[in-house]
Amino acid sequence: MTGDDSALAPTVDPSATTGPGPRLSARGLSAGYPGRTVIEGLDLDITPGRITMIIGANACGKSTLLGVLARLTAPLAGSVRLDDIDVATIPRRRFAQTVGMLPQHPTAPDGLTVAELVSRGRHPHRGLFDRWGQADTKHVDEAMRRTGVAELADRPVGDLSGGQRQRVWIAMSLAQNPEVLLLDEPTTFLDLSHQLEVLDLLVSLNRREGTTIVVVLHELNLAARYADELIVMRDGRIVAGGAPTDVLTKEVVADAFALDALVMPDPLTKTPLIVPVPGGAHTGNEPA
């Protein structure tokens, strides 16, 4: 990161992508947990080769949706499809070669070093008896370099700070080299400077390699700045989707977040900038 203001703005050039990859979609999707349906009857198309960010209030179904797209949990009804093939019919290893997922709270075995954890990203690309090759080393080294954790290679993951651990997990996801990368709150535990570095890294990955990236993000203004497309959720349904300038209106913010806010152009990127009105948060408990 540099000290000038231009470092805060990502370089966004959609024409620079290397071409669309596989299309991830959902049809009639219902998902949840025993005794509780979180998402019901949802249809979704993720645009290949773009950065899509999913936003919404707490408990609206963002992480549930991402987990079903990644095959971490099975849908209650409907299907997730990859290039119109039901992902339930795709062998798990083959699916993992195409779609990678970084969950919100990943865990690593005690004593595992940074290099060992990042190397696990190569597992989907190696058969049971395959030897470690130069391509594996290249992907792991490049992933650690790009996330700034190469100097931590021999450190146990458990000894790292929260921010360092998060960057190591992102490095593991990059080492997997998926065509579609799903990330659930990847900037958790990071200060603002490192949040921007991580998001700049995702933009670089998308623009250089055409990787389709889907991110659940909590911070509205960063989502608006870095997304090609936004999906806004409320109560397990999609209430708006499209380009940030089309989606993040005063009305959508009020509907999805129960928040009165001003919506104005970001002075650096011209993307929507959300400024909450003092006293404008509605919890649902105030008198009518």
From TrEMBL:
Single GO MF annotation: ATP hydrolysis activity
Keywords assigned: ATP-binding, Cell membrane, Ion transport, Iron, Iron transport, Membrane, Nucleotide-binding, Transport
Gene Ontology cellular component annotations, sorted alphabetically: plasma membrane
GO BP term, example: iron ion transport
Pfam families (UniProt xref): ABC_tran (PF00005)
Topology of the protein relative to the lipid bilayer: Peripheral membrane protein
UniProt KW Ion transport keyword: yes
Limits of the ABC transporter domain: 24-260
Gene3D superfamilies named in the record: P-loop containing nucleotide triphosphate hydrolases
Region: Disordered, residue numbers: 1-29
Localization annotation: Cell membrane
Protein name: ABC transporter ATP-binding protein
Species of provenance: Pseudoclavibacter terrae
